[in-house]
Structures are given as C-alpha cells and as structure tokens.
Specification:
Layout: E1 2-3, H1 9-19, E2 32-41, H2 58-72, E3 76-80, H3 86-92, E4 97-98, E5 112-115, E6 119-126, E7 143-153, E8 160-169, H4 176-196, E9 201-207, H5 219-223, H6 234-239, E10 264-269, E11 275-283, E12 302-309, E13 315-317, E14 321-322, E15 327-330, H7 332-336, E16 344-351, E17 355-362, E18 367-371, E19 376-381, E20 388-398, E21 401-411, E22 416-420, E23 426-430, E24 435-444, E25 448-457
Parallel strand pairs: 2-3, 8-9
Antiparallel strand pairs: 1-23, 2-12, 3-5, 4-5, 6-7, 7-8, 9-10, 11-12, 13-25, 14-25, 15-24, 16-17, 16-19, 17-18, 20-21, 20-23, 21-22, 24-25
Helix pairs in contact: 2-3
Pfam families: Exo_endo_phos2, Jacalin
Signal peptide: 1-26
Keywords: Endonuclease, Hydrolase, Nuclease, Signal
C-alpha cells in the first residue's frame, strides 16, 4: 500500500492487514498462484435431534474437526450444519479469518467459512423456498453465504486477485416438495451470481443435496450451462472426463474412490480479470477420522486444488477501497467484449462533500459510469497518446458507513482531475508498467461506496 503522508501509521497497518493474505510479503506484482479449498458438512445438529450415524461425542468430534482444519491448513473451508457445536470447532482451529456463527438450530443457517485469506462483503441469504416434506428443512434458516475473497494482493495495492465464494446448504429429501424446493434453492444462487458476481471469478461449494443421476435434480446441471452461470464442476471435469453422469454411483463413508458421486459439490468459473482452473479433486475422507478410525461426519469432505492467473488475461484489477454498502458492479465484461483495445478519451467525476460518481468515455464511444447524480461534475479530455495511469482514493464515514470521499486521477502527461473532499485516509494506485486504468469495479448507489480500478495494456 502507498498511503499519503496524511495517513497515520496505525491506520496504514490496519488497512494492510485487511487487504493482504496472512504472510504475504511479495514486493513484485503477483500474476499467478495456487490455493486449496475444502467443503465439509460437519454434522453439527444437536445429538438429541440427529446422531448423523456418527459414533462418539459430538463436542469431542467437533474439537477434532477443528484441530484437523488447523493441521491441514486448507486455504478456504466452507462448513455446513455448523450449528450447536460451532464453538468447539473454532476452539481448536487456527485460521486467521473466520465468520461468526449465526446461531444454533432454529436460529442459524449452519454455514460458516474459515480462511487464510481476508474477505469483504460477507452476506447471508435465506432460501426463498423450503420444504418439510421429508425432513425439517424449514426449522432453521438454511440458505447460502457470499464473500469476496482476496486470494492474492500486491503489497502496494496496485493489483489484486479476487474470487467470489459461495457456501450453500440446499433442501434435503426426495419427496415432491423437497425436489421443488431444492431446484428453487440452486436457481436462487444462480440468480444471485448473475447480479452480484458480474465480471468476477466464482467458486460455489457446499451441500447441494443433489445428484446428477437424479432426473429431477436439473438445477445443478443448469449451473454448468453457459446461458446461466457457466460454472465447471471439477469432479465432472477431472474425474469423469467432462461427462456428466446419469447412472447413480453412491459413495461409501469414508470413500476410497473419487469416482462415486456425493451431494457435496464444487463449481467454479474464471472471469476477464482472473483465470481459474482446478488441478485436482479428492474426497478427503481419510484425513477426517477419529483416533479409532470412525468417521467424524456422515459426509465425505471434498478437497480441490486450484490455480489462478492474471498473466493470461487482458484485464487486471486493483485492490478495493471504501465500504460495504451499495450494489456490486464491474466494467470487466464490457471491456473484455470490446473489439479493440480500450483507452479512455474523457474522464468524468462528480463530487462535493463526498465522491458521488466516477465515469469515463472510451475512444470507441463506450460510456462507463457508476454512482449518483449529486455533486459537481468535472471532466478531463485525454490526448491521443495520453493515458490514465494513477489514482488516489480517500475514505471517510457517512451515516456509519465507510465510503469514498475523494478521487484524484493522474495521466501519463502529468495532468490531474479531482472530485470530492480529501480526507486523512488515502491510498494511491498505480497501473502496472505498460498498463492503464480503463474502468472500475466496486459497489455504488447514490455515491461511490467501494471502488477498485480495472487495468488494460496500453
């Protein structure tokens, strides 16, 4: 991070911890990396309601699960059914970033995340449809969670690699009402992705309670469709050679093969900003056993290794600056779809007490704008060989929410354009060498709540 001289040292340290993964010290801009994930239904229903056919004391088992999470050190872990034994898992786990429980049965969703990476925008969403046809799925507010995870960030904040992570637990059972509810659940996640994850790489994993071999479970196949979310299932991709199965192959627990199908699934996709692909798939069953060899859950945990890269993308992104209100947006899909290399012809900002809007017009006439209509407009026309290469953002608090109060753009010719009111909490962003700022991503409403910059080669 490159704060201005107005930023106090304590604040600089706090912002650095927010934006960087634990232990990240790289001075050079990272353009590729790897990480792994785990999805595990931890069988955390109260023992009096459901034993999950797992021997032993559930509190003791939860402590063992947490200890194994810590020892195996998966980068991002999604857990489901994390209800009444949540505290025991967190007691022995050591991941630096963890979601707070939403409560036990009848109060919470049972969905939590343990991560080595920081994240922003965490949100819980309850299913709009549930069914008690064959079980008590409506007893507790099951649904899905969303978070934007920083899998890698340069120490200067000039570049960052974000992935949108979704954790879900769909309706169980195979009665007609269950089937209808589960289809609605998966389609609800797909609709959320279409709105909130535009332009972003995505990972969806959790307990779908679905199988490809069930003819009624069409929604999970819909997730693979380019007309909806265009996600990839790494189990289908790597284990089943790209062929979606139609015949049922149930797994034992613990499973000794990856060929069988479970309801615990993972889906992913790349974006114009980040190439993402799975490199391995496995059921991590043998890693999650009690000392006597018994299972710790009635579900086989799912482990995926993934590789990411910005080296092969035509666009890159800076770190985010600001708060967590407003609607997510990204110019990346528009920029990636242009026939020619993007370059701003005019910059236009609006601001007064705060930053009301940011926008630009590209040389091909495309207009990109985000925010409201308040404040005073200021524009700068760029020359044919002039590029937008640097920006400063300053933050402040309004109505209890952090927002961007000020922007300063600097071109390759040394000219500037500013809007809003500068504060003592500022960060500078420089386009990588040979690149330029061509668009935006973040959150906005009447003002620019959160902002990052999209880069393209000159």
């Amino acid at each position: 991070m490159k704060p201005t001289s107005l930023c106090p040292a304590g604040l600089r340290a706090a912002v650095l911890l927010l934006l960087l993964p634990a232990g990240a010290l790289a001075a050079a801009t990272p353009t590729a990396g790897t990480f792994n994930i785990l999805s595990m239904n931890v069988a955390g229903l109260p023992a009096i309601l459901n034993s999950n056919d797992v021997p032993g004391d559930k509190a003791t088992n939860a402590r063992t699960i947490g200890a194994k999470f810590a020892a195996l050190d998966y980068d991002v872990i999604h857990v489901q059914e994390d209800f009444n034994y949540h505290a025991y898992i967190y007691e022995t786990d050591t991941h630096p970033y963890r979601t707070a429980t939403s409560g036990g049965v009848s109060f919470g969703s049972g969905l939590n995340t343990l991560s080595n990476f920081p994240y922003v925008g965490f949100a819980r969403t309850k299913w709009a449809t549930c069914s008690d046809a064959s079980s008590n799925d409506c007893l507790t507010p099951k649904g899905f969670t969303f978070m934007r995870v920083l899998v890698s960030g340069a120490t200067d904040n000039d570049t960052a690699a974000y992935v949108d992570f979704y954790n879900l637990h769909a309706d169980a059972g195979t009665e007609d009402g269950d089937n209808v509810a589960r289809q609605a659940n998966i389609n609800q996640v797909a609709a959320y992705i279409a709105t909130w994850s535009v332009g972003n790489a995505v990972l969806v994993f959790g307990d779908t309670n679905s199988r490809y071999s069930r003819t009624v479970d069409t929604a999970i196949r819909g997730l693979l469709s380019a007309s909806t979310t265009a996600l990839t299932d790494p189990w289908v991709e790597l284990v089943r050679s790209g062929v979606v199965p139609t015949a049922e192959t149930l797994c034992a627990n613990p499973s000794t093969t990856s060929y069988c199908e479970t309801v615990d699934k993972v889906f992913y996709r790349s974006s114009p900003l980040l190439a993402l692909h799975a490199t391995s798939f496995a059921y991590a069953s043998s890693s999650f056993l009690q000392a006597n060899g018994s299972v710790l859950s009635d579900h086989n945990p799912v482990q995926i290794n993934l590789a990411w890269s910005t080296a092969t993308t035509t666009l890159r992104q800076s770190a985010l600056s600001g708060g967590l209100t407003g609607t997510w947006f990204s110019d990346a899909p528009i920029l990636a779809g242009l026939a020619s290399k993007p370059k701003p012809a005019t910059l236009t900002f609006r601001g007064a007490s705060r930053l009301d809007s940011v926008g630009l017009t590209l040389v091909d006439g495309s207009k990109l704008a985000h925010g409201g209509t308040g404040g005073t407009a200021a524009s700068l026309a760029l020359g044919v060989s002039e590029y937008w290469v640097a920006a400063r953002l300053c933050r402040g608090v309004k109505d209890g929410n952090t927002r961007n109060f000020y922007i300063l753009a600097t071109t390759s010719a040394g000219r500037t354009l500013a809007a809003g009111t500068a504060t003592g909490d500022c960060t500078d962003f420089d386009a990588p060498a040979g690149w330029q700022i061509v668009g935006f991503a973040g959150q906005s409403g009447d003002e620019v709540d959160q902002l990052s910059f999209v880069y393209a080669a000159r």
